[in-house]
């Protein structure tokens, strides 16, 4: 599988509906249609997916599944999620100050929305929204992001994610963070695990991660590829899609096939 074919497959995964709704879906008849200029990007996303409960400009409530592509500046500079709404099957924009809570696919509800978004995106929020947040988390995410995106891509390439795959990926990301000078306590390790589980990498996120690795320390790249193989083997079988994904990554970064 060429890298272009792999990116197409992963794009199809992201475009597909998430596995399940953690709460009942609620939609108004129509949505707000005032999209900001999406070129005014405040932060990037890698395809994180979850549910939100949202109140629009007319006071109408909704609960829907989204996959986030970026953080953009809305009216007056208010941060907004630019995301695919899986109920509308279309891109939508959601003001952060109108999101009442976020719900992950395990059904856990996060009412501290700024903290949830900081945990997932490491984004810089206005002071009015960012009070009390962990200032180091953005740097931790930045240091592990490339590896997390590619591990998540391999994890999801066969359409299933197993507990052992997540555990192997998490151990590697903790090691990457520690090599970058970050000590992760149990709470941060749990946050990192949730971050990995919520990733459904977009094709652009995967391509950006690959570009970041080209020319980097070959030993670090080989270590990442070994982890990807361990992720593939975690459920006791080598799915052809996982194998193709790993070979596509290895060929693009190192010019070799590894499995």
UniProtKB/TrEMBL annotation:
Source superkingdom: Bacteria
InterPro entries, per the entry: TerB-like, WYL_dom
Pfam families tied to this protein: WYL
Coiled-coil spans in chain: none
Stretches assigned to the WYL domain: 46-100
Protein name: Tellurite resistance protein B-like protein
High-level lineage: Bacteria, Pseudomonadati, Pseudomonadota, Alphaproteobacteria, Hyphomicrobiales
């Amino acid at each position: 599988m060429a890298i272009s074919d792999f990116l197409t497959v992963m794009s199809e995964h992201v475009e597909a509906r998430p596995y399940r709704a953690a709460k009942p879906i609620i939609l108004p008849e129509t949505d707000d249609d005032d999209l900001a200029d999406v070129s005014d990007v405040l932060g990037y996303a890698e395809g994180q997916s979850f549910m939100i409960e949202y109140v629009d400009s007319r006071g109408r409530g909704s609960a829907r599944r989204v996959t986030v592509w970026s953080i953009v500046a809305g009216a007056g500079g208010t941060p907004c999620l630019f995301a695919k709404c899986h109920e509308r099957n279309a891109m939508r924009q959601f003001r952060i100050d109108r999101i009442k809570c976020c719900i992950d696919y395990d059904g856990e509800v996060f009412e501290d929305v700024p903290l949830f978004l900081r945990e997932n995106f490491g984004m810089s929020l206005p002071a009015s929204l960012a009070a009390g947040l962990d200032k180091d988390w953005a740097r931790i995410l930045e240091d592990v992001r490339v590896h997390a995106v590619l591990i998540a891509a391999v994890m999801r390439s066969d359409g299933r994610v197993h507990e052992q795959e997540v555990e192997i990926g998490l151990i590697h990301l903790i090691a990457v963070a520690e090599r970058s000078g970050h000590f992760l306590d149990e709470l941060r390790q749990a946050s990192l695990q949730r971050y990995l589980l919520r990733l459904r990498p977009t094709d652009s996120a995967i391509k950006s991660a690959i570009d970041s690795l080209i020319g980097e320390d070959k030993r670090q790249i080989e270590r990442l590829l070994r982890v990807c193989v361990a992720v593939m083997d975690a459920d006791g079988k080598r799915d052809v899609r996982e194998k193709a994904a790993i070979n596509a990554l290895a060929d693009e970064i190192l010019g070799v096939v590894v499995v």
